[in-house]
Amino acid sequence: MAELSDAVPRDRFIPMFDDVREEIVATDIDALEAHRPNDVVGVSLYVWDEMVHRGVTKEPFKIAPIINSGMVGIYDFVRKELGREPVTDVYSTRFFNEIDPTMSFVDVTLLQCFPDDIHIADVEFADNRRPIDDTAPVKGARNYHGLNIFDDFLERLKGVARDRGAGRLSLMVGGPGLYEVFARHGFKVGDSVMAQMAFETTRVGFSMYQDI
Length: 212
What we know:
- The protein is α+β, with helices and mostly antiparallel strands.
- It has helices spanning 10-13, 29-35, 37-53, 64-68, 74-82, 150-164, 178-184, 193-201; strands at residues 21-26, 87-96, 106-113, 117-131, 144-146, 168-173, 188-189, 206-211.
- A hairpin with a 3-residue loop joins strand 3 and strand 4 (117-131).
- The chain is globular.
């Protein structure tokens, strides 16, 4: 069976630089919660929304106390309500190069999760040799042109998903401009009431997916 790590196109970007170092961030949900808690919150909200949409839970607002408490214990809550693990596999990695050994230029976090998905929690392929403008790069807004390997990544990810028996790719749109990027690559807004509402009102905080 293909590994989630097989979707990362290392052979495409490592030869572009002289010194590339990979750092594995997480390979299970506990490690992901320790190092990237926002990704755990994001996938938990995604799974809950799919549970509501599919009628797995009949109480859509039962999650409200968790949200009001700052998302404390959200994964455990969703797991209990679902009756099984919402996430069955995790792979999170990042890469550094000689241009900036302190800030990653490639980040990929993938999860296999309910209902039938390979979920993209994070993906970044930044060419840190080529700034977009004079704005200083920071984590989450690196301000670099891309490495032009996103299409290849998605094709590899689809292959991984098919090999693992997953039927969809999915993600949560967490920032402005991301809808347009993923829509160009064949993703569509989630079918749930909440996804449609968030898309129409805020244009962030909604799911997208692509059948494969």
